[in-house]
Amino acid sequence: MEINSNSDNQLHRFPQFKAVDAVRWIPSISAFDRHVVAAMHDPSASTSSIDVHSFTTNPTPTLHLCSTWTAPSRITSLSSPPHSAHASLFPIAVSTFAGSLHFLFLDPIEGVVQSEASVPMEKENGVRGFHDGTVSAVDLQVGGRECVTVGEDGRVNVVNIEQGGKVGWRRIDDSMGLVSYTAVKWGSPTEFATGSLGFGIQLWDQRKPTGLVSQFKGDWGQGTATGIVHSIDIHPSRKHICVVGGSSGTVFAWDLRWQQQPIMLSGIGVCESSYSPCESEVWEVQCDSHVQSGFISAPSTTILPTMMCSEDGILGVLRQGEEPIEILAENCAINSFAIDPQNPSDIVCGLEWESIAILTRLRESMPM
Amino acid sequence: MPGLLSPDGKESLVPFNLDLQKPSIHTLPHGLRPSLFRIHISWSRGNCLHVTCLRPPNEDGEGCGGKIAAVTLGGGEGGDLSDAQMRRVAYGSVPAFALLQSQKNVDIQLPRMVADTVRSQWWQHVLDYSNQIKALLGDAKYSPSSVIENPRTVLKPVGELTNLRAAWQLMEIFYADKHSLPWLPESLVDWLADYDSLISKVESTIHSKLTNLQKKLVNLQIVEDDPEYWEGISSALAVGWFDIVVKLLRLHGSYQLDQLDCRETENGLVETVAVLVSEMPRMRPNLSNGKLGQCYKSKSDFVKAWEKWRGHIAKLDCSAFWIQCANHQTRDGLKNMLQIMLGNINSITTYTCNWMELYISHFLYVRPLTAGFDGMLSLAQKCMDLKSISGSCVLTRLILGILGENTEVILAECSRTFGPWMVTHATELLTAENNEAELVLHGERYNLGGISIEELHRLVYAQILSSHTLTWQIAPTYLVSCPKQGLGFLEILLYKQPAHHYQMILKNLEICRLYELDSIGISVMKIAGMHHWKHGRKGFGIYWLQQAHDEVRLNRIANELFDCIGKSVSDDVFKQWEGLIELLGSEVGKAGGLEFLHKYRDFKRSIHLVQDKNSVDAAKSAVEFLMQLMKSPSTPQRFWLSLLHDSVKLLNWPIRPLLNVSQTNLLLNKLQELSMAKLHPGFCNTNLTSEATSSIRLALGANLGRAILEDC
Q1: What is the CATH number of the domain that holds A237?
Q2: Residue at A253 is within a domain
Q3: Which of A246, B409, B510, B568 makes an SS bond possible with A229, Cβ 3.0 to 4.6 Å?
Q4: ipTM of the complex
Q5: Residues of chain A positioned with their CB less than 8 A from the CB of B49
Q6: What confidence tens digit (pLDDT) does each residue in B430-483 have?
C-alpha cells in the first residue's frame, strides 16, 4: 500500500495484481465497516470476478478481501443503488462482454455474496434473445428490483427480479445494430436516459407506447470533435438534467426543458470560455454532493458540481462557470470511480495499473 | 524439429539432444466429443498458444463444432518476484523512466556552455530516478510493530528482501550516488548489513549465525559460558554491526546486579571493549539512527582519530587487568575482539563466513582508506582466495563485474538473473557518469542493425510489455526512447491491438494522439469500423469509418445498406433508421454515400407534411430536397423511380407549377435514363408498375407545359 497525502486529500493505493474494471461502494450498516465491490479481470488465468473488499481505517487504512464471485466473462458494467430498500441483503447488478446479466445479493455486514440470479441465456431461432453480444451498461433502480440494460447490439431491455429470485425481462427497443448504446441511467422509476455514439442522448419513458420520448444529437458547431458517451448521471434532486461524459474530455449537461442547447462543462474546442481539465476520454461522471449545502437549495437551473475521471488520469470536479478542481492526477488512466453515497468525502477509484485507490477529501479543494 | 534428420542424431545440422530437454506435456480439456477433424495451432500473446480443435462438419448438429483452447508455455523466469509483482514494478518505473528521458531531452537542447554545467549535475537526476525505482522494489527497513523493545532481540526483523533490490542498490552505490563515492567502503558495509542473508542460501552467513544465536539466547541463563555467544559477537564485530555487538555485550552476566561486586574487573573490561567498539572512527559523513561509531569527513582527521583509537586498543591489549579477570571465556572472547579490531588477518578470516564478509572486514580494520576500483578488485580477489563460496551467488558475480569495470559482464548478469526490466532500467545508472560504459552502450552496432545496445534492450523490454494485455499500454514510453527503430515498433504495436471492445480502441487512439501518429490512428479506426460492421453493429461501424474520413468504405457500405432498405422506404422502416441518420450528421461530405440517407429522410419528412394545397412551404422545401437528391451523384439509381413516384403529388400541385422548366427537364432526363438502363444487364427492377411509370410521365409532361406557360 502506498500513501500520498497533502493538506487537501489523503490517498491510499492498494495493488490488486489484476485489472480493475469497475468499482462501487456498498452502503454500510456500521460506520467503521464499509465495503467496496470491484469488477476484476485476470488475463493470465482468463478469469473475471466480482471481489468484495472491506475497507477499514483503524489503525491504518486496509482493504481486506471478503469474498469473490466468479463471472462467466469480463465485466463491462457494475451498478449498485445508492441505498437499499431491503436492509437484509444488498443487490448489485453486473453485465458482461458475453451478454449476460447477473444480480448478486450481498450480506452488507460480512461482505459475502448470499445469493445470485441471472437472466436466462436461451436462444430464439439461433439468436440470443436478451442481448446479442456485449451489454455495454446496466443501471439498477433504487429498490434493486428493476434494472435497465443497453448494448452495442442496439437493444434496450428492462429486467425485473421478482420475489423468489425469478428474473424476467422485456424489450423496450431494438435498433438492430443501427444504433449502439454505451451508457444508461435511471432518472425516475419509469424514465431513463441512454447514451450513444456521436454524443447522442435518448430519453425513454416506460409509460409511453413507443418508449422514446425525446432525443438529443450532439451536433454542436462546425468541425468540432464528436464522440462516444461513456457515462450519464442524473441527480435525484434535478431529474430534468442529465450530466454526460464522453470522448475528447467532453462533459456537458442536457436540460430537458431547453433541449437544443447543452450546457458545456468541459471539452476541447466546444467550450472556449472555460479551461478543460483533460483532453482524453471521460470514462465516468457523477454528481458530487460533497459541497457547501447552499447548492442543493440553489435554483433548479444550476448544474450540480460534477466529478469526472479520465483516461489521462485526472479526477476532478467541474462546476458551471467556475474553474475545475483537480482532486487527483495519476500517471495512468482512472477507469472508474464512485463517491460513497453516505460519506461523500470518500472516493474509490479503479486505476489502469491494477490497483484500487481510496481518496478522502479532508476539506474543500481549491480551484486548479 | 531443427536438425533432427537421422534417428541417432549424427548427421543433424544443429546438434540436438533429446535428453537435454524432456518434452513437457500439456493436457487440453477441449470438451468436444471424439474424432476431431482438424487442429489449428497459432501463437497468441506472449507464451500463449491457441489450439483450435474442430469437429467434422455436417455431422449431427448436436453440440458445438469446435473450441479454442489456450496453452501457456513455460512458467516465467526464476526471478524472486512473481509475474504480477513484476508488473507492479513495471508500472511504477514508468514515471521515473519517462521523467529521466524528458530531462535528457531538455539537456540536449541547452546551449553548450550551460550544458557542461548541467551535465556535471546529471548524476543528481539519476540518483532521484534510482531512489524512485528502489522504493518500488520493497523497503529493506522494517517498521516496528511494537514500541517496547525486547532487550534480548539483537537482530532487527527486516522487511522483504530481494536479490533484485540488493542488486539495484549495489549499482546505485557504484554508479549513481556520487555523494558517497569518497566513502565507498562504508557504503558497502551498510549494503552488507542489509543484504548479508542473501549472499548464500545454502551455507551459513553471519546473519544466519546471529539468527540461530538469537533463538538460543531466549533460553540461555549465563550467556558468556556459551562459545556461540562469543563467536556471534566476534562475527558481528568483523562486519561492523556495532549496535548488535554492544547489545550482545550488555547481556553479559557481569552486568547483573547480584554479580557486580565479585566480577568488577571483568565487567570493567567488557564495558571498556563496548565503549571502544562504539567509538570506532569511521570515514563517512553520518550514520543512520542506531548505528555506532565516530564519523569523520576529512581524511586527515580520520587518520588521526584512527591512530588514537588503535592506540587505545593496543594499550588495552597489554593491560594488566586481563590477569585479574577470572572468567577465562570472557577473557578469551574479549581478546579475540581486540585482535579483530587490530586488523589481525587470521582473526577476521576465522570469524567471517564468506569472501564478501571478509572483504568488508578488510575495509573496516585492515585497509580503511581503500579507494579506486583497481585496489578494490585486487582486494576482492585476495579475499576470494582465502574464502570461496561454493555455488557462486548472483550478487557476488555482479560485484566482481562492477569492480572489474566490465559493462558487458554487468549487463549479462542483470539480464540472466533479473531479466529485461533490470537491464533496461539499470542502463541509466551505468551511463550516469561513466564514459566507457556510455561508449559501449550507446555505440551503434553494425551487427545489431545499426542500433545501440541500450536501444536493443529497450526494444526487447518493450516487446515483453507488449505481449501482455495489461502492460502493452506502457510499452510506448520505452519505444519512443528508441531513436532508430522505436517508432516502427510502436506502429506495429498499435496496429496489432484487438478491435473487439471500443474502450480498448479508444485507449489505443489516445496513445496515437499522444505521439501524434495520426495515420496509425486512422488505420485503427478503419480496422475498428470494419470489425463492427462485420459483426452486425452497423451504427458503430459507420461511426468509426466516419471518424476515419474513409469515403471509399463508406460508399461501399452505403450500397450494402441500401440493399437492406430495399427499393423504397416505408415510414415504419424509417423510424428504425432514425438513430443511424442522426449519427450521420448534416454536414456535407462527411458521410460519403450515406449522405443520401440523410437527404432522403428530409425529403420524406417534408412530403409527409404536404397534405393539402395550404401547405405550400412544405411542398416548396420538398421540391428543394427532391432536386438535391436528383442532382447528387450518391443517390442510387434504384431509388429514382420511387422518388419520382413520390413527387407526383408535387408535379400536380393545383394552383401553380412548383417546378420550373429546367427542373422538370432534369426529372424527365432521369426518367429517360431509367428506361434506357432497363436494357442493361445489371439493372435492378423496381416493383412499380408500368401504370405508375406512365402516371409519372403524364405528370411531368403536364408540369412542363404549365411551367412553360408560367415562364412566358
Answers
A1: 2.130.10.10
A2: yes
A3: A246
A4: 0.91
A5: none
A6: 888 777 788 888 888 888 888 899 999 999 999 989 988 889 999 999 999 999
